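Reviewer has doubts. Consider these tokens.
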Amino acid sequence: MSADSEQRSIRCMVAKVGLDGHDRGAHVIARAFRDAGFEVIYSGLHKSPDDVVQAAVQEDVDVLGISILSGAHDTLVPKIMDGLDEYGAKADTLVLAGGVIPEEDRAELKDEGVAAIFGPGTSIEETIDFVRENAPER
């Protein structure tokens, strides 16, 4: 067995939170992550922040990608970050946000612990490279 095959793959969860019913982008990023060699879990639609936290902790993910288009990012993302913190998973999880998040709201989400925010037009390769460079090593 080579050193590459012994290397653990990056475990990612792509989550849709709240009432947002548009998940085409989430499917695209989940497939791209899978094709990049990441292990991917998709939450499905309409998950509560607690549902997302529970799944992320139980699945022991390295990366949590939150796809949100509803405009509720300033309410839902902090709840997820607080939940990860309660379970002691915040420091071990690279949290990304994607979707329509206004520029003026991004600093607050980063203060909450979101590592990066990828808006419309971001290339898939940029997102994959960011994950490879920043996913926590375990």
Summary: The longest helix spans residues 73-86.
